[in-house]
Design goal:
By secondary structure, the protein is α+β, with helices and mostly antiparallel strands. The chain contains five helices and seven strands; from the N terminus they run H-H-E-E-E-E-H-H-E-E-E-H. Strands 1, 2, 3, 4, 5, 6 and 7 form a seven-stranded antiparallel β-sheet that branches. The longest helix is centred in the middle third of the chain and has 30 residues. The two termini are about 45 Å apart.
């Protein structure tokens, strides 16, 4: 067992680690390569996020998160990683059969967008790539259309009800509750439309990079009103992923 370090030794180690990172970031920023400038910026963002994640560990309550189902899409921060490891904020597919509410971690497969230069006919299944096509985009678009119709109908119903209400009417409290739900739906609709506007249409599941993440890293959905709540890929897509997992990680 190693001897615990003194406070002064811990401070010295901290200063040394921070100096090493500061020197590295400075080298990137002082480079003439703009790609390295971008890398320095991304690392800096990640360090801020990482510190926030660590700080939230003590107060993090995993039971407040929804129960994630196999095939569900989540938006998760994978961190700033090394080499070809997928990093940053990505969509991912929940791959485990059962994820208990109290489980602090989740097993996911990261998704990446299809680049404009990518020939989808040459996607490498042997390298663990599974093409999802426009499935995620279609699922979100359908959710927005359904939500828009629901809000329109609910608003019409509420307007009719409000016009008939009189002071002291017993339905006033019920109407107020319906209005609160409608506000949440409107907020969700706005967020969903914004998400779609930033989304590239084609997606690829990177099965070789299947990974375990803390639920602290999940940005969405973290409540029933998340943009990705109830967004789940088809059984056909899951079958393709299962076949790729068997080819990559098990004996056939």
């Amino acid at each position: 067992m190693s001897t615990p370090k003194s406070q002064s030794e811990l401070e010295a180690h901290k200063d040394s680690a921070l100096k090493a990172m500061e020197d590295y970031l400075s080298d990137l920023i002082n480079s003439t390569d703009e790609n390295l400038h971008s890398k320095a910026d991304k690392i800096s963002y990640w360090l801020e996020d990482y510190a926030r994640f660590l700080d939230s560990e003590t107060s993090f309550d995993v039971t407040k998160f929804p129960k994630y189902k196999r095939g569900q899409i989540v938006k998760v921060h994978l961190g700033f990683n090394i080499g070809s490891e997928e990093g940053g904020v990505h969509y991912a597919i929940v791959i485990e059969n059962k994820s208990p509410v109290k489980a602090p971690t989740l097993n996911v497969i990261p998704l990446t967008s299809v680049k404009s230069s990518k020939d989808v006919s040459k996607i490498r299944g042997d390298l663990g790539e599974v093409y999802l096509g426009n499935e995620l985009y279609r699922l979100l678009t359908t959710k927005v259309d359904t939500l828009q119709t629901s809000i329109t109908n609910e608003l019409a119903s509420l307007n009719e009800l409000i016009s008939e209400l009189k002071p002291g009417d017993s339905q006033i409290q019920t109407t107020k509750k319906r209005l609160e739900v409608l506000k949440k739906k409107l907020k969700l609709l706005t967020k969903a439309k914004k998400e779609i506007s930033k989304m590239k249409i084609g997606s690829i599941a990177l099965v070789r990079q299947i990974t375990t993440v803390s639920k602290i890293r999940i940005y969405d959905p973290i409540s029933p009103y998340g943009v990705l709540s109830d967004i789940k890929v088809s059984n056909e897509t899951l079958d393709k992923i299962d076949n790729t997992i068997r080819q990559l990680f098990t004996k056939i």
